[in-house]
From TrEMBL:
InterPro entries per UniProt: BesD/HalB-like, Oxoglu/Fe-dep_dioxygenase_dom
Domain Fe2OG dioxygenase residues, every copy: 126-246
Family statement: Belongs to the iron/ascorbate-dependent oxidoreductase family.
Designated name of the protein: Fe2OG dioxygenase domain-containing protein
One GO MF term: oxidoreductase activity
Superkingdom per UniProt: Bacteria
Keyword flag Kinase: no
Protein keywords: Iron, Metal-binding, Oxidoreductase
Keyword Oxidoreductase (UniProt): yes
Length: 265
């Protein structure tokens, strides 16, 4: 079983460029993530793997649930005790399509990557986690996001301590990942309202990531505010989110499943 997994992994990941089993490589990745809050691994998957995953995504795109959400950057309920112009209550827009874990083919290279023990072991070392678990519901572990022309992900902080994404298809233009590190301190409940207001008024210059197809990104977004700018052109931006938990038996809340997936099961 373990041998078979290694064979499969070696056909998916470019292990020459990204030797995820090597302790020195893992330490190098961890240092970079700890230093800058983001780890960008270009050409993580072989071109053939990405083409296969892209073909699967396009075949399933008609199943995607599209939604437009108005939310604040904190992804929390609005505070009625504050004005509509307060940063806690100012709204941004997120719009995308999404297919859920149960719609990803069982034999997909994407699922093989997600389930790989070696891949999860690599992630644990880099993220400083003891163990990683899939979501307990059948929708949330692997998601594929589709952003057609004009669709975007508005400014926000993540609720989770880390995010893992794989770019499957870049758009012709737009779809730029932008972020500002250490923009709040959630540990002491400092929400940096003044900084957020400046950002929403266009007075801050964020950092930008350049990504090609097959790029794996590990990102700490709990205190780093970030967004994806609107897609420009007729080529859909397609991105997979690989979602894990540090505890077993965790499901995404029913309200979140209805909001993002349009269904509970």
């Amino acid at each position: 079983m373990a041998v078979q997994e290694e064979i499969n992994l070696a056909t998916i990941i470019d292990l020459q460029k990204h030797p995820i089993n090597d302790d020195h490589y893992r330490e190098k990745c961890k240092v970079e993530l700890d230093k800058s809050g983001v780890l960008v691994l270009d050409n993580f998957l072989y071109e053939g793997s990405i083409k296969s995953i892209l073909s699967e995504a396009k075949k399933q795109e008609n199943l995607a649930y599209y939604c437009v959400n108005e939310h604040n950057v904190y992804l929390n309920p609005f505070d009625k005790n504050l004005s509509k112009n307060h940063p806690r209550n100012k709204t941004v827009t997120s719009s995308k399509g999404c297919i859920t874990d149960d719609q990803v083919p069982k034999k997909s290279s994407l699922r093989a990557l997600y389930n790989s023990l070696k891949f999860k072991d690599f992630l644990c070392d880099v993220l400083d986690e003891t163990v990683l678990y899939k979501y307990d519901d059948n929708l949330s572990s692997i998601n594929i996001h589709f952003a057609k022309e004009g669709q975007e992900l508005g400014w926000h902080f993540d609720n989770s301590s880390f995010a893992i994404t794989l770019l499957i298809q870049k758009p012709k233009a737009g779809g730029q990942f932008e972020y500002i590190r250490q923009f709040r301190n959630s540990n002491i409940k400092d929400n940096n309202y003044d900084g957020v207001l400046n950002l929403l008024n266009g007075n801050c210059i964020p950092e930008k990531l350049t990504m090609e197809n097959g790029t794996l990104v590990l990102f700490r977004g709990k205190d780093a505010i970030h967004r994806v700018t609107p897609t420009i052109g007729d080529r859909t931006r397609i991105l997979s989110v690989l979602a894990y938990n540090s505890r077993p038996d965790v499901s995404l809340s029913e309200s979140a499943r209805m909001t993002f997936f349009g269904k509970l099961y």
